[in-house]
Write a structure and sequence with these properties.
Length: 296
């Protein structure tokens, strides 16, 4: 029998604060996840997983234990501490594929090799990689929608570019201070009512909003820390005004900047101003070290 999504979320995420990395626990200490905000009519079948989650690492095609792939609700927070963060890249929600969703925005967990798996790279991550190669090398030929990926793959195969392996790239970003944070930390397949089609996304966003707001408020309010927040797409742009308000209250408005761009799934993310170059320009202007977007 189907159960309410809110109840399934509560059961799945029982004890979630213990799964938050220790360095981040102060940032979420007062948070209560908003089960009441999940609409009453959203239902989920008992065999349908909620992912990525804190405790079930071996369900329905998720990465197995010991694999170099990763799978955790708080994967984004595992990659760096709050004191390291100088860039936040807001995603909307995890990939609706349990093998792809790692818990860090835009990271794709089912890739093992950039060359062999090039045909399986998601549109969003592909466009980010094209901009990363252009930002790293200064060659905008990578931002060619027709040939850019083939050029990038050829250069990686020939070792003219030597980026980290897929499972190592986002940890490399974390070490440089980039937090890839989804504003919705889980996803599932669930029904809006008996006999209705299965849908993704709805309900989870409301559940996680208190935690995301607390994390972002904590980062904005750090004394003497500068922050660039990338707002890619209409969903992410909704966070601009709340963040500005938090910064104003914290007295940190002068240390907060935004890099606004289309969502990476769109071709305009590649063809318009390179958002990764924009982020680095903002960091440099704030006296921070720029990010190596395609590190060796």
């Amino acid at each position: 029998m189907p159960t309410k999504l809110r109840d399934a979320l509560e059961e799945t995420m029982t004890g979630w604060k213990h799964a938050v990395p220790a360095a981040w626990r102060d940032a979420v200490a007062g948070v209560t996840l908003d089960a009441a905000g999940v609409r009453d009519g959203l239902m989920i079948d008992p065999w349908v997983p909620i992912f990525p989650n804190c405790g079930l690492a071996e369900i329905l095609g998720a990465p197995k234990r010991g694999s170099r792939r990763v799978y955790h609700t708080f994967r984004a927070l595992q990659l760096l501490s709050p004191s390291q963060v100088k860039v936040v890249i807001l995603g909307q929600d995890p990939y609706p594929d349990i093998a792809k969703a790692t818990g860090a925005s835009f990271e794709q967990g089912d890739l093992t090799d950039w060359v062999k798996d090039a045909h399986r790279i998601s549109s969003s991550l592909c466009n980010i990689l094209l901009c990363a190669a252009a930002a790293q090398t200064g060659r905008d030929t990578y931002r060619d929608l027709k040939d850019g990926l083939a050029r990038l793959v050829d250069d990686v195969a020939a070792r003219r570019l030597q980026p980290p392996a897929p499972h190592e790239l986002f940890p490399a970003y974390g070490r440089q201070g980039v937090l890839w944070l989804n504003t919705t930390l889980s996803i599932s397949l669930f029904r809006e009512g008996p006999g209705k089609a299965e849908v993704h996304q709805k309900g989870h966003a409301e559940y996680w909003r208190p935690l995301v707001d607390s994390l972002l408020g904590f980062l904005v309010g750090r004394p003497d820390k500068r922050l660039v927040v990338a707002l890619w797409g209409a969903w992410a742009k909704k966070f601009r005004e709340p963040l500005q308000a938090k910064a104003q209250v914290a007295g940190s408005a002068g240390r907060l900047q935004f890099a606004v761009a289309p969502h990476p799934v769109n071709a305009t993310f590649v063809t318009e101003k390179n958002s990764l170059v924009d982020i680095n320009a903002r960091l440099t202007g704030m006296g921070e070290t720029p990010i190596s977007w395609l590190p060796s």
